[in-house]
Structures are given as C-alpha cells and as structure tokens.
Specification:
This protein is of the alpha/beta class. The strands form three sheets. The chain has an eight-stranded mixed β-sheet, with helices on both faces. A two-stranded antiparallel sheet has the order 4-5. Helix 4 crosses helix 6 and helix 6 packs parallel to helix 9. The mean pLDDT is 97. The structure holds 3,4-dihydroxybenzoic acid and fe (iii) ion. The site of fe (iii) ion has 6 residues, from loops.
C-alpha cells in the first residue's frame, strides 16, 4: 500500500516566487526564510517521496468568485501555472498522477466528501511556492502531484473541523492505494495575515505559535474554533491555516485515530510581505 512518509507545511506568498525568480535567496530580507528549508532538503533526499499531495487554496487563477467549489481535487496528467497578475514568470508544469487522484476522489466521495473533480486545473503560487521551496534549482520535478484545493476565499468557508475530517479521509484513501508509492503531504498558506480592510497587516504571533505547537501535540486543537473565530484570531487570509490543519490530518490518519507525529524542523519568521511566515516538517512518530 502507499505510505504517507511526512508532512511539510509552509506559507505561500507571491513575493517568495519573485525572490526565487530573481535569485534573491541570499539577500538579508530573504536569507533566514530560505535557509530554513535546508533540513527539509536533507530530509527529502533521504525520504525520496514519489508523490506529493498538495493541500492549497486557489486565489482566482483556476476558480473565480462566480464558480467556486468548497473542495476540489485535480485528476490531470499535468498542471500548468498561469499569470495571476503578480508578474511572476511561469513555473515549469507539474506532472500529475491521475490514477492516484481518481483513487483519492473515489475514496473521499465514498466517505461523504462530495468533491469537485478537475481533469484540467491551473495551479497558482499556493502550489508553485512550496514546490520550488522543497525542490529548488530547476530540472525535472522529482514527484508527481495530487492537488487538493479548499476554498478559503469566499464565504461560506468549510469549518476547521470539516477540513480536519476531510484530511483524515484523504489519509485513509492514500493508505488504501495498492502501490508502493511514498507520499509526502504538503499544506500551504497561513500563518496569520490580512491583506486588506481595516485590519490590513494584522499578525497574531501568539496564536500562530499555539497553532504550530498543536500541529505536533494536539492536532485537532484548531477545530474548536469557528471560521469567524479563526478569522478574528489570524486575519482574513490567515484562515489559510485550515490548509495546514488538513495536511496534518492526512499525515495522522490511522485506523485507530491519530498516529502521532514528530517535528523534524520548523521555522517562524515575521514578516514576509504581509504574512507571518512559517514552515513545519513532521513525520510519523513510529
Ligand atoms: C500575500 C499572502 C498570501 O497568502 C497571498 O496569497 C498573496 C499575498 C502577501 O502577504 O503578500
Ligand atoms: Fe494566500
């Protein structure tokens, strides 16, 4: 059966894509953030995943406000990037894994999560940033991807509790896939930030740190909060932390409850652009 070998969660910010495109990783503003990924590169070199399940939110590239699924899963053979309006150069296309995508889609629908299935799907900075951060330097992507998209953009949003259960369903789906694939799950977005409105620039370091600790020791902690409470605590884009929560639930999904995880690496850095930027690498405790 396929095996989930780890979970990497990271903030996404278009400015990260821009810094990569312009080779700014060593500049003072960026160095600490990019250096934080060195342990992740070491871990990936030895863990050698075949596939990445990428839990992210689309920001208007593939879905717009007129047609916006709550949960969508890609089942394409390839995913292209596109012009999001941030003046970012195109990133080379990501290879898909339609067979695993359809297995996950079939499994989660059977478990009560009626996802939108996408045989074509363009992916934005929320997928490109983590892929470039995890596997820098160009060349063929070493993993195929299964994109899992969750609406964090237009109300009503799925609750943290619902996302946690969705992640568990994805985890069980992957664990029942009859192949020897090694799967890493990636969650992208967060941590606290708000880009516009009266609270533009809002950051809540105390809540972010509690949330990051909960990812290791108390994974369902954030599910006690309603969506509005999470927006109050983290900002209207900080709600993207439900994507981290979903990815964490994928990693922990075992037949008898959460399997427990170990933190391999973590960083927290304020700010990048308007965002409290964090990264965590977790692996199963056993
Ligand atoms: C920023 C953060 C985001 O999550 C995003 O999607 C776009 C921009 C920012 O901080 O600039
Ligand atoms: Fe975002």
């Amino acid at each position: 059966m396929a095996r989930i070998i780890g979970c990497v969660t990271t903030s996404h910010v278009p400015a990260i894509g821009n810094a990569i495109a312009k080779g700014r990783q060593e500049e003072p503003y960026w160095k600490e953030w990019f250096d934080g990924f060195t342990p992740v590169h070491r871990w990936l070199a030895s863990a050698r995943p075949d596939v990445a399940v990428v839990v992210y939110n689309d920001h208007g590239l593939n879905f717009f406000l007129d047609q916006l699924p709550t949960f969508a899963i890609g089942a394409a053979a390839e995913y292209q990037t596109g012009d999001e309006g941030w003046n970012l150069p195109a990133v080379r296309p990501f290879p898909g894994d339609p067979a695993l995508s359809w297995h996950v889609i079939n499994s989660v629908v059977a478990a009560g999560f009626d996802v939108t299935m996408c045989q074509e799907m363009a992916v934005d900075h929320a997928v490109c940033n983590p892929m470039q951060l995890l596997w820098p330097g160009g060349g063929p992507w070493p993993v195929r991807i299964v994109p899992v998209e969750i609406n964090t953009v237009q109300f009503p949003l799925p609750s943290a509790a619902r996302c946690y259960e969705f992640g568990q369903a994805i985890g069980r789906a992957v664990a029942s896939y009859p192949s020897g694939e090694r799967v890493v799950v990636i969650g992208t977005g967060g941590l606290s930030h708000q880009l516009d409105g009266e609270r533009a620039g809002f950051i809540n370091q105390e809540f972010d740190r509690k949330f990051m600790a909960s990812m290791v020791t108390d994974p369902s902690w954030a599910t006690r909060y309603s969506t509005v409470e999470l927006v109050e605590q983290t900002g209207s884009q900080g709600i993207e932390l439900i994507l981290w929560l979903t990815a964490r639930a994928v990693l922990g999904a075992g037949s008898g409850g959460d399997v427990g995880v170990r933190e391999v690496a973590a960083t927290y850095h304020v700010p990048i652009s308007n965002t409290a930027a964090g990264m965590m690498l977790l692996e199963p405790a056993g």
